[in-house]
Each structure stands twice: as structure tokens, then as C-alpha cells.
Request: fold
Amino acid sequence: MAKITYPGLDQYQTMLADMSKDVNKMCHYAIYPAAGLVLDTLKANTPVDSGDLRDSEILTRFVDDTDETYTTIVFDGYDSKGVPNSLKARTLESGRSNKNKHPFIRPTLRQVNQQVISMIDQKIQEYTEMKMEGK
Reply:
């Protein structure tokens, strides 16, 4: 009976096991730059000339109790008249009974959707290759 051996299979299996432990790191490595792309495009598409709303858009990252990493884009602070920027953004996006809507968040997400997917895919590939090389 013939015997077939695969050298290095144990090392490959160990590498895959190590990668499964680093899923949160890989997600952060892939998602944070993609969220940065969304933020940059959102800032460019924000329809406010004063800059209060545009300057309030920030990218945040936090880790919860279960060690999950979250990345969010928020409208932080208040404008020069004391109006919360999150309320201002929501009003622009959805409108009010006395104010027409000027959507800029949803069109931005549609605009960068494929770029974000490609960027995340590329970053996951890079991370995988780094792990395979032992970095």
C-alpha cells in the first residue's frame, strides 16, 4: 500500500488555529480603513456650507465586554447655534414637516459600497498573507 505524506500540514493547521483566535484583530484591520473611506466621502458629500456638521463627523472605535470591536461614524457636538449635530444630520437626511430632506448619508453609502467591499476583501487578504508569513 502506498503512503502519501504532506509536509508542513501541521504548521498550516496551527496557523489556521491561530488565525481563528485573531478574528477581532483581522476585522479591525479590515474595517477601520474602510470606515475611513466612508467618512472621507461622507465629509465631501455633506451639504452644509458652514462646516459645523462636516467638522463634527468623527470615526470612533471601541471594544465591548465580549472583546468585539465596533467602528462607528458619529456626528459629535453642537453647531454654533447650540443645535446637536446628530439632530441636524438626521433632519437633513430625512427632512421634517416644514423642511425638505437633503439625503447625503444613504447616497454616500451607495456611492462607496463596492469600494468598501473591495477594500475589506483586500485587507483580509493582506492580513491572511501576513499571518501565513508568520508576521
